[in-house]
Structures are given as C-alpha cells and as structure tokens.
Amino acid sequence: MLAAQMVRRGAERYAARTAVVFGAERLSFREVDDAANRFANALLARGLKKGDLVALLTGNGLWSVSLDFACLKAGLVRVPLNARLSALEHERMLHETDAHWLIHGPGLGEVAASLAERVTGLVDIGLGDPGLAGDDLLADAASANATDPGVDLSHDDPMLVLYTSGTTGTLKAVVHTQGSYAAIATNILTNLVSPARDSVMLHAASLIHASGTFVLPYWLRGATTAILERFEPTEFFAAIARHRVTEVNLVPTMLAMLFTSGAAEHADVSSLRTVIYGASPMPRPVLERAMDVWGPIFVQYYGQTEAPLCITVLDQRDHLDASLLGSCGYPSVEADIRLVTEDDRVAEVGEIGEIQVRAPFVMAGYYRADELNAEMMSDGWLRTRDMARRDERGYLYLVDRRSDMIVTGGYNVYPREVEDALMEHPAVAECAVVAAPDPKWVEAVVAFVVFKPSLVASEDELRTFVRQRLAGYKVPQRVSVVAEIPKSAVGKVLRRALRDPLWRDDHA
Questions:
Q1: Is the model's pTM score more than 0.70?
Q2: Less crowded by CB within 10 Å, the N or C end of the chain?
Q3: How far apart are CA 117 and CA 324, in angstroms?
Q4: Alpha-carbon gap, residue 319 to 322, rounded angstroms
Q5: Domains of the chain listed by start with CATH number
Q6: Cα 373 to the chain's mean position, in Å?
Q7: 386-441: pLDDT as tens digits
Q8: What is the distance, to the nearest Å, from the Cα of residue 253 to the centroid of all Cα atoms in its chain?
C-alpha cells in the first residue's frame, strides 16, 4: 500500500471523528482530508507537478497534517526546513535539492523573504501568512476543488527529502518514498503502539521528524492527533489533562525537563497509557524516576532518519527487567539486523559490531549522493554507523557511534560543521568538537581550539561567531584553549582523546 492510499482509507472510514486538535480548534477526518485535497489542487493549479520538490518552513499548527497529506496526494516531494537552522543552512539545503517552491507558516515570513532574496527563482507561498507576492495557500484553498486530485502514484515515487540534521558539509538528505513511508506506519503499528479509536497522541516536538511519523498510524486507527505549537512543561501537562491524552512521544531531554521543572508534581496524567521515547540515549536516573512516578508505561525505540522508526524496541514488559534498561531493545518484526565487525564478520554474542539493517521502511537512499549511497548501502543493507553488542537473548546494547555525531536535546550536531564555522575565525588555527555529558541536554557541544601565533579570542567571541553561522543548539557550550589537538600517526584528529576524559570526569 502507498502512503497516499492510507490517507484515503482513514478519511473514508472515520470521516466524522475528530482527527486533529490544535488549541481550541478541532478538525474531523473529513475536514482534514478536504483541506488536503484543496491544498493539493491549489498547488497543482499553480503549475507544480508530480515529483516537484517543495520546501516547507512551517511550525506545528492546525494545518500541518493537511499540508503533508496534500503533498502526498499531489505526488510532491516535501523538503522540511527546521526553523531553528540559520539562513545559510536553509539556503544550502535549497540549493542542494533544487527546491524552487517554498511554503512558510505564520511568524516565518521574514525568514522566507530572506530566502527568496538569496535563492534565485524561489517562489514563496504563505500558509496563513502571505508570501512576497501576497500569495497565501489558505486563501487559494478556499476556492479550490475539494475532490481528490487523483495523481497516479507508485511505490517508488519519492515523497520526502529530509535532512538528518541541517547539513554536515557532505550531502545528508534522506529520501523516502510512498512505499517506504507506508512501511514506516505499519512498522509503528506492529511494534511500538496500537492506538484505539479513543486514543489521543500529544505532539509537542516538531512534526518534521520522529513525532510526525505517528500521525499516519493514528489516522489509520481513527485516533486523534493533538498538536502543541512548542514544548513547555506546564502547558504540556495541561494539554494531557485537557485532551485526555493516552500517548506521548518524548526525547530524553523533554522527559528530564518535565521533572526538573516542578510541573510534574501535581500533574494529572491518569489518562496516559504509553510514554514513547527515543532519538538519543536516555539517562538511567531520569528513566527510573519517571517510572517510579508514572509506572511501567514506557516504550523505547531505536531508529534513524534513514530507517524510522523502529529498528529495535524495548517494550513495556522489557522495562520491568532492570537488566534491560541499558538496552536499546529487540529487533522489530520487519527488521533484519546484523552486527558487522571491523574485519567484516558477523559479530558473535557479546562482540561489538556495526548495526546494519534491512527492512521495508529503510530509505531509498541519500539525495543525489551516489558515492555516499555506495558506501552506506549494500545489497539492501543499511549501515547505521552505530556500534552495538547483542546479548544471548538477542537484545542490542549501543556502545558507541561510528560517526562522531553529538545528540543534544534530541537534535543531531555533526562536529565537522561546527569546526568549519570556528575555522572561519581569523584567530583559530585548529579546532576539534566533541560531546560532553550534560544533565539537561544529555550531551553538550564542547570545542577545543588552538590559536594562531600572536592571535587570541575570548570564549564569548568565538561562541557568538559560531551563532552567526549555525543554529543555536550547535553553538559550543564551552570552548577550551589548548596547545595542540591530538592526532594519529597519519594526522587524523583523535576525538576520543578529547572526549573520553570529559566522560570519565563525569562518572568519577
């Protein structure tokens, strides 16, 4: 089945039920689907056609689901832009994907206008917030046809080009198709959660990434998607009580903030059936405290943008076994998983190897990146770059990342892009960026810098310099000046030599 067919099936079966809640507003399945059809027909009437790439600069809102469904039905390829990224990062993504159309949401008009000036030929359309030419998709939709556009679609048609984390200097845009996205929905329903018609999932994280993958599974079951504009602990708990929320999806930082904010003390979470978490390592003390207060209602997933959402799952029953709380779970039903050692062997029990996965929900590949695809995919197997061991029961335990990616507050930061920004400063001769433990964000971005002879810069100056070039969460929380950066015999930076003492000190 195709993702677009799943949208049609849910709309037909649950037409009168509430599908989306945002603030005080509610949309039925029929209203969401009608809006999707109107958006799709309005975009096609503008001259867009199947296969065209459309950049979406939108936050969570009432029309988020309808807009995504519109792109599915029209055969358009979404390129979501994270509003937290810098203008330079957005510009690079638009150039790399050749997206000539941009739809922006309320409050993002200035950013969109700046991009339209930077990117030649970019057409900016507002969604409840007119673009440069006064164009607004909501206004267009009011007079558009509400019938399904009926675009001919196939399993291999691309529908999403999603950057794993802004840009890394090397193109890292993941392509999912109508078929793989449908498989993602099936994977979630089979392995992670089984919503009933009275189920309500609350979305406080951006719908661009993991949170958004739950929308279609809930749609197929006639359940409700409740959307918050942003995450804030007090409002999050208020929304749980107000909408009688049954499931939430959190990154570890969000869960930690719920308890450290004090908002959890008197919160009504009696309706909660399942708390789903993933995206970054969960500190065991945070999980244990949450389980003590809320009970054994937690489920963990391990996955990647390249293979969402569940490569492995640690379910509620697994959480009752204290020995498994350090595991990332058991392989999901559809996933073939192997651990491959450095010498290209399948790892034995207890032996560390790279996780490789083969499954119907794996991406079609990286966008316009033949060399990277050849490196990362072979005979249907995806290399995750994550290192793990398997116990005698078949559960996996992550031990390291083959890449040096930093996960801070659920957001991925690649050291290279931060290093590239620092190296633009005239006083910096060398630098290296690593992850340090952080009680709030799980991992913090930390930079080590060597200055050029007779030149210096303050920590604040360097952090400000990076902030002007990258998103705020990529700015180093600390900058340490060192005499030299440790390197191997062949001149490769030894990040572990910088990173390991930070983690040893934290556990001392």
A1: yes
A2: C
A3: 52
A4: 7
A5: 27-153 (3.40.50.980), 406-507 (3.30.300.30)
A6: 20
A7: 889 999 999 999 876 666 778 898 887 878 789 889 988 999 988 999 999 998 88
A8: 14
